[in-house]
Amino acid sequence: MNTTSLEAAAQEPEPDAAPGRVVLLTTSHRVAPGLLSWPAWQALRAADRVLCADGAHPQLPYLREAGISVEEASPTAPELVDACAGGHTVVVVATGEGEPALTDGLAGLAGSGRVRMPELELLPASYDLPGARLLDLVQVMDRIRAECPWSSRQTHQGLAKYGIEEAYELVEAIEAGDRDELREELGDVLLQVVFHSRIAEEDAEAPFSIDDVAGGIVAKLIHRHPHVFGDETAETPEDVKEHWLRTKAEEKRRASVTDGVPLGQPGLALAAKLASRVRTAGLEVPLPRGEGIGYDLLALAARAEAEGVDPEAALRAAARAYRDAVRTAEGVDG
Predict the structure, then answer these.
(1) Which class is domain 130-211?
(2) C-alpha–C-alpha distance, residues 224 and 241, integer Å
(3) Which of 33, 246, 257, 283 has the most crowded CB, counting CB atoms within 10 A?
(4) Are 110 and 42 in contact (CB under 8 A)?
(5) If you average pLDDT over residues 232-257, what whole number do you get?
(6) What element of type H or E holds 91?
(7) What is the pLDDT of residue 6?
(8) In the CATH hierarchy, which fold is given to the domain comprising 3-124?
(9) Keyword Nuclease on this protein (predicted)?
(10) Is 211 helix (H, G, I), strand (E, B) or coil?
(11) What percent of the chain has pLDDT above 90?
């Protein structure tokens, strides 16, 4: 409907007529069209007119299927106020960008004091659930993979080094206590997961998607937390860890507590992980006796693990202190 027909449809206000009501209906593109809240459906069915500026709005086919008559119109603020004259209710189905020009216009009219304004209501018709923005990330990654000359040629092998780099940068942000940096680095790590999952979809022999990745970890978490999702109990963090390791061993049918420990990780972390597996399993395995710094470091890592200290983190903290001392000696600020 054009502006002329909209003006013709609006009724001239009577001196004592009720000013009516404007409902701005907002929806989330991350929620399937048609899944609206009950108050939204009530407002739509009770409205005298329903307007939408976007003829391709994803909600329109579902509203019309439900018997809601929707006019394709983009009214100005004065036109909308006139359309509400006589106590009428007009619902405006907001576009994806919202309706900034309309809302600014209504605010200007209300602030002028010269217009008897209708009741104004903002009604969210659908809400984003926690994690909904992950859908945006998946969609953006799909487009980048298809259209970016660099991203479209990447492989798991080519991206592997970035996974390591981003993980280290995340640890550094955590240890530095920088909240803004932490949020950014978490995003970079998440990107690696989504990127690899997108590449995996194209594998000819064993494809999988981000949904398969998420579904797998959800099933694993539920299975390994029977004290949360099942009938078992866990009174202490140690109880949880013991059950976790036992369940992992049963799942993977490991012959040794050392199975599954990646030998390519940094040496101190590797030594601490092995010591943790041995201690948690209740095994009495003396440290090997040998000459050299390697055996000394092994003993220190095992001692740190037994005392609840992460030897890698402890060494990094000491190294940062050493770096600061060097910079001070050099007269370098910061």
Answers:
(1) mainly alpha
(2) 10
(3) 257
(4) no
(5) 81
(6) strand 89-93
(7) 53
(8) Cobalt-precorrin-4 Transmethylase; domain 1 (3.40.1010)
(9) no
(10) helix
(11) 70
